[in-house]
Amino acid sequence: MKTYELNNGTKVFKYGHPIETGAIVQSKIEKELKEELDILFEKGHAKISIKFLPNDMVYGFGGNLGGINRRGRLYESYCTDEPLHIEDKTKLYSAHNFFIISGKETKGYFIDFPSRIKYDVGYYNENYFNIEIYGEDFYTYIIEGKDAKEVSEKFLEIIGRSYIPPKWAFGYFQSRWGYEDKGKVRKVYETFRKNDIPLEGIFLDLDYMENFKDFTISEERFSGFEDFVEDLKKDGLYLVPIIDAGVKAEEGYHVYEEGIAGDHFCKNEAGDPYEAVVWPGKVHFPDFMKEDTQLWFGSKYKILTDCGIEGFWNDMNEPAIFYEQKALDEAIQYAHEQKDKNLDVFSYFKLKDNFTNLANKDSYYKNFYHEIDGKTVSNDEVHNLYGYYMTKSANLGLSKLLKNKRFLLISRASSIGMHRYGGIWTGDNSSWWSHLEQNIKILPSLNLCGFFNIGGDTGGFGGNCNGELLTRWLQLSIFTPLLRNHSAIGSNNQEPYVFSKEVLKNTRNLIKARYSLIPYIYSEYMKAVNNYTLMFKPLSFEFKGTLVEEVEDQLLLGDQLMLAPVYRSNQRGRYVYFPEDMLEVSFLDRDMATTVRKKGIHYVEYGLEDLKFFIRKNSIIPYVKPSKNVKELDLTDLQLIAYVDDEAFYKLYDDDGKSYDFIEGKSYLTNIKIAKKAEDYKINIDNNNPYIKNINIKIIDSNNNIIHKEI
Ligand code: MIG
């Protein structure tokens, strides 16, 4: 074991010869440290056991199912294409091995290891946190701090700043697997415009490709693609195509040919390109662990950026495998052998399972190999880096291709460190109320692991959504950086206009509210990333007490807002816990009704036609008039709503939203201070944002008295 320390005091323990994952950006300084964790090395695995104190809470584990408090559950880190997000699933697409144990003492732990890890967070024995690492070569990082918030900030600092999307990526996106041709896509765009619903862009799913081949465009369904992209862009509309990890193995297909010629694919045992079956049929997987393969694959995005595309989503990069030919052959062979046998039920189950269990078998990931520093390493050993490195490859490519222009990039699979290259969506959820609830809980957990450009498929991916669920889901997603309504082929359509007139009206207003709030959401995103703070926080990161620790269906957004979405059907409101006095705002009410809520539990009415949030004491929320897209957002008349007890502040961050000039400090700040002075208010505004000309302020005091000011 070797030990180190990082600048901010994080302790690092190195066991064996770990693979360098790139998760951490700070350099390690050698330092003698005493081992802190109780680690048992056994049969090639490492086992860690931590004894809980009775009221310890556990935060972290990013993109997994379960609560904000992770205690009492099983988790596994092994990136998996899991299409069914049901309660007993222990793993999904991500491997986010960071967690904080918080109670009498608070410590953060990061296990930097790219293969399988299993966590029993006090599930089988409520007093112990048991961890099994499937290897002996890894780093552990231990972060101390006075509370979970401080620990989380130190962790964000050591993994480096998140990727920054362009401002247009904060708009509303419509998506659906099954917008099968140009005509369908245009129709969606036109229907949004006709119904006066803002729309920033449309995601293109597999439908746009020719036979599921990456970096091809179907001549039959999307002919004249470049003109199509350009035409829509004139009206400010972005198209965001999907790219899958597997490259179709087909003679004559340029990506395949180049991949073979350049030796870019993962190998099988015999040293030939490994073959598996995904959407395109037989595919090879680019070996993203090799730098020249990263550069090569990244450069292929040019085919689409040349058509004017500035955003992508990387899918199936766990990587997902439907089957290996050999496994399918065996299943078929076995089936043949059962023919004419009088099967008992157990034999029948075996026969059936042979087929239903073909996808993503553990064994497949031991059958192909990467090249790392000249050494051959099975995918299994670095499994969790695949989606991360694919996204890194895309980021490197797009950064070169688009120069100083920012791009939208999200990935399905991820592990810690990938946040520097792209965001993520939370994968194939369903149109279930429980998945709306799950969506609330995943947001702070993802932030804790560095992911800020995040969002779930609004309305749910699988299954059939209805108007009520879509409306309720939007009431949450209006606040997430990525706002995308996406649904699966075969499910009913779920665009805002396919339901009743009432739903259309409500969802239109909600999406408009999103545009009104983009200056705030963008500002909070950028400040969180720059300051290494969380954008979405559990209540317990700011307040103390049992109630606060147990509330899992409310969130803090920035330092200003508390959110309490309705996530059950047939509700006209819900109980909300107020850890301090707050101002309830009905943002979509014509007069923007406000109510002062005293600390405690209150039933809050929350209709489908509204957007509610709660402003914390001495906080200010900026907003503007809605627009049909980000390009047309107009900051000339900035509106503020302030809940002032004595002195309220807000720092509104803004920049050009397009380039990386903000890194050189080219950004706009508007510092606002509203102080109560006797019967009046003193307002200080320090503004260097040239777009803001007038400021209208609505001040509300702790007695719900409203005062209007104009500057
Ligand atoms: O096997 O591209 O999560 O968003 O619509 C399914 C089709 C593959 C999974 C993604 C989903 C996408 C779908 N993909």
Structure commentary:
The protein is of the alpha+beta class. Among the domains are: 2-159, Immunoglobulin-like; 526-710, Immunoglobulin-like. It is 24% helix and 28% strand. It has 15 helices and 43 strands. It has a 9-stranded parallel sheet with strand order 26-25-23-20-16-15-14-28-27. It has a 7-stranded antiparallel sheet with strand order 3-1-2-13-10-9-6. Helix 6 (291-300) packs across helix 11 and helix 13 runs parallel beside helix 14 (501-531). The longest helix has 31 residues, at 501-531. The chain is globular. The N and C termini lie far apart (62 Å). The relative contact order is 0.10. Ligand MIG is lined by residues 177, 205-206, 242, 315-316, 412, 427-428, 461, 486.
Unique ligands: ligand MIG
Count of helices? Answer: 15
Biggest sheet layout: 9 strands, parallel
Radius of gyration: 26 Å
N- and C-termini, Cα separation:
62 Å
Unreliable stretches (pLDDT < 50, length at least 5) are: none
Broad CATH class of the domain at 526-710: Mainly Beta
Oligomer: single chain
Would you spell out the secondary-structure blueprint of this structure?
Elements lengths: L1 E4 L5 E5 L13 E2 L8 E4 L2 E7 L5 E4 L12 E5 L16 E2 L2 E5 L3 E7 L4 E5 L6 E6 L4 E7 L3 H12 L12 E4 L6 H13 L6 E4 L14 H4 L2 H10 L3 E7 L2 E2 L5 H8 L14 E3 L2 E4 L6 H10 L1 H4 L5 E5 L9 H14 L6 H12 L12 E4 L2 E4 H4 L3 H17 L5 E4 L2 E2 L7 E3 L7 H16 L5 E2 L1 E2 L8 H11 L5 E3 L15 H31 L4 E2 L8 H5 L4 E3 L3 E3 L9 E6 L3 E5 L7 E4 L2 E6 L6 E5 L2 E5 L13 E7 L3 E8 L13 E10 L2 E8 L6 E7 L5 E5 L1
Parallel strand pairs: 8-24, 14-15, 14-28, 15-16, 16-20, 20-23, 23-25, 25-26, 27-28, 38-42
Antiparallel strand pairs: 1-2, 1-3, 2-13, 4-5, 5-12, 6-9, 7-11, 9-10, 10-13, 11-12, 17-19, 18-19, 21-22, 29-30, 30-31, 31-36, 32-35, 33-34, 33-36, 37-38, 39-40, 40-41, 42-43
Helix pairs in contact: 6-11, 13-14
The structure holds ligand MIG.
